[in-house]
Specification:
This protein has five helices and 13 strands. It is α+β, with helices and mostly antiparallel strands and about 220 residues long.
């Protein structure tokens, strides 16, 4: 059973005869769970059927997509497609690259943006118009996604921090770290103070201070 990587791709293009035909077919095949095969068919790999190693090489993932949702909107000027899906172990970046290249031949003003995340391997990223930026999930990303939640605390001059409110948590600071972080999804950049602590919640736990606020893994709240 693989770790599943969640992907959400947004595609926009000028509405013309060629883009309409291509994106209608893309939408149709994606609904069948065949997005990868539509964009990079087995014949382009020199194959007649699925092959593990070739799919890893050409698609970036061993299987085709597991569709979650899809939508297409068309008006006189534009076509917009959004598709959410899972892929095995990692994102299908080679497919997104080929999709962008094919669509670019039909419309020089097109855009393909795919965001993805794989919590099991602690990475996420954004592919946009031929550029892929993949990063480790840092504190800012985890705050934006809700994995870290704000906690009210009472600071002291010692290494003891006590949570206010009803949680009854306390933290004894063992180590302090300070570093810059950047959340791609919100384009949020900030300095992070991380406090590695002994706590009554767990033997070792991290508190994060960002822009004057403290955050902790939501599991403990």
């Amino acid at each position: 059973m693989p770790n599943w990587c969640y992907n959400n791709v947004s595609i926009s293009a000028t509405n013309n005869e060629k883009t309409l035909k291509f994106l209608n077919k893309l939408y149709e095949e994606s609904g069948k769970g065949k997005l990868n095969e539509f964009v990079i068919p087995f014949s382009d790999m020199g194959l007649e059927e699925w092959d593990y190693g070739s799919c890893i090489e050409y698609w970036g993932t061993k299987w085709d997509i597991d569709i979650i949702h899809s939508d297409i909107k068309k008006d006189e000027d534009d076509i917009n497609v959004e598709i959410g899906f899972n892929t095995a172990w990692g994102p299908n970046i080679p497919v997104m690259q080929k999709l962008y290249e094919k669509l670019l031949e039909l419309d020089s003003n097109c855009s393909v943006r795919s965001s993805y995340d794989e919590p099991g391997m602690n990475f996420y990223g954004i592919f946009e118009d031929g550029n892929d930026d993949c990063r480790e999930m840092g504190p800012l990303y985890n705050i934006s996604s809700g994995c870290l939640e704000e906690i009210e605390v009472k600071e002291s001059d010692s290494n003891l921090i006590v949570a206010s409110g009803d949680s009854n948590l306390f933290f004894i600071i063992k180590e302090k770290k300070k570093y810059d972080d950047h959340d791609l999804t919100e384009d949020w950049k900030a300095e992070v103070e991380e406090f590695v602590c002994f706590s009554n919640a767990e033997e070792e736990i991290s508190l994060y201070k960002v822009e004057g606020l403290y955050y902790i893994n939501s599991h403990y709240l």
